[in-house]
Amino acid sequence: MGYSPEDNPYLPGDPYSYDLKWMVDKMKGWKDPLDSAERAKTSEEAAAASAEAADLSAQAAADSATTAEDYAAHIADPVSGIVTDWLAEHITQPTTPAIDKTLAITDTAADSKVTGDQLETKITGSSSEYVEGYRTYMPGKFYYISGGVITSTDNAYYDTYIYELKNTLHFKISATIRGSSNYLIIVTDSNGALIERYEQGSSGVNTTYTDYEKTIHNLDGGYVYLSFGNGEAHDIKVSALRSDYDIYQDDMIAESLRLGNRWKNKNIVCFGDSRTWYDGHAYTANTKADIRGEICVGYQQQIKDLLGAVVTSEGSSGDTSVDICARILAYDFTDFDAVLLEGGVNDFIKSSDVTIGSIMPIGSVFDTSTVYGAWQAAIEYILTNFPALKIYMDIPAIAWKGVDDDMFPYSTAEIKGEIAALYNLPCKNLYKEGGINVLNRDAFYADDTSLTNNWHLHFNDEGNALIGAELAMFINNN
């Protein structure tokens, strides 16, 4: 049955409705190629196939329901207790404002949704508080400093990336350029004031094409301009970070939830020197003027916040290892689940009055007037009298003193690490892994060097937050 517009009498009027009428008329003369017997047989086969398909569909639906019931029975029961406990503590208690549980999400499901939303915001940050470097690509532009002001010019041979840093305390720039042209890195604060300028290449200060990498601290927002030859092979990254405390806190919250808060409401006691003592005490007259007299928030606070533990501080200002261990040998640990053995930096500060000694085999008679002997005696006292108590040790964070800016020698600091290894005890190396060095130490220490023996010894709140988060994760993972 072919279509021919010429023999369609309805086409000249409405080509849509009248063309349909023409096709209906043509269909009236169409003949079925199958006779009635063949047509009936075909219909029966089709009906049988349809019935079989219906049976298979019904069976699949039944299997799916059974699987769903099995899944619920195996998954819901063991998880419900954990979820209920956590929600009871964090979500289901009355809140201001009240949590909205609408949109047909009710009961535990609503709590779970709110929990997920809050955890996602805590870990990734909302759009107003997250600090990724927002990058803008400026092809054909070169940025430079002119009269102390950021200036741009059109230059077909150069491109620029501009990073806007949101609420940032620390960030890291790394750049690798390979070619004949120079590149320029400019860092400003949020008001455009110059923080850092680095140029490399044919017209730059450096011509050896060494890779550039720098971490800049304590910048509350700002901009990074990276101008480079657009024909050159390059790899440029700006890693914008919140404060180290915020980053570690977010990681710790996620890890703590995953592990079910195994330290929640457990009792931890911290033994140490002034670094432990300072928590809850006022910064003394030898600290920086802007914090002098304020109450210190010690590293213990991060252990409380991040692990949910109950923390007792047994710090004594000025104590050497010998002094700390003498107090341990007289202490009753019955009510505690764990002990953190902090301290040892005063073995450096008071080095002329300290005897180091040497490590002895387990079970020896120890000379408790030496650093080695005191720690070994204290550890064996705990292991013998309180064998279920979990013992954590640290290698103290770095320190400096004196007119020559002497650095706490690692050979003294690592004594505790050596002893921990002998007794198979977990030990956190804050000296090498604490994140503090000669370039950033002023951001994390409280001491006024003009009023002390050029000390970089006691942490400020930021330093305690950094060290405390490290210790909390260490305790949680061991």
How do the strands and helices of this protein lay out in sequence?
Elements: H1 17-27, H2 36-90, H3 107-124, E1 133-146, E2 149-165, E3 170-178, E4 183-189, E5 194-200, E6 212-217, E7 222-229, E8 233-241, H4 244-258, E9 267-272, H5 274-277, H6 300-307, E10 310-315, H7 321-328, E11 338-341, H8 346-349, H9 371-385, E12 390-395, E13 400-401, E14 406-407, H10 410-413, H11 415-422, E15 427-429, H12 430-433, H13 461-476
Parallel strand pairs: 9-10, 9-11, 11-12, 12-15
Antiparallel strand pairs: 1-2, 2-7, 3-6, 3-8, 4-5, 4-7, 13-14
Helix pairs in contact: 3-4, 4-13, 6-13, 7-9
Concise structural overview:
It contains 13 helices and 15 strands.
Write up this protein:
This protein has 478 residues and is an alpha/beta fold. The chain folds into 3 domains: 65-124, no CATH class; 133-241, Sandwich (Immunoglobulin-like), CATH 2.60.40.2380; 244-476, SGNH hydrolase (Rossmann fold, 3-Layer(aba) Sandwich), CATH 3.40.50.1110. Helices cover 36% and strands 22% of the residues. It has 13 helices and 15 strands. The chain has helices at residues 17-27, 36-90, 107-124, 244-258, 274-277, 300-307, 321-328, 346-349, 371-385, 410-413, 415-422, 430-433, 461-476; strands at residues 133-146, 149-165, 170-178, 183-189, 194-200, 212-217, 222-229, 233-241, 267-272, 310-315, 338-341, 390-395, 400-401, 406-407, 427-429. It has a 5-stranded antiparallel β-sheet, with no helix packed on it. Strands 10-9-11-12-15 form a 5-stranded parallel β-sheet, sandwiched between helices. The protein has a 3-stranded antiparallel β-sheet with strand order 6-3-8, with no helix packed on it. A hairpin with a 2-residue loop joins strand 1 and strand 2 (149-165). The longest helix has 55 residues, at 36-90. It is flat and about 80 Å long. The model is unreliable at 1-20, 71-80, 91-133, 202-209, 242-248 and 256-260 (pLDDT under 50).
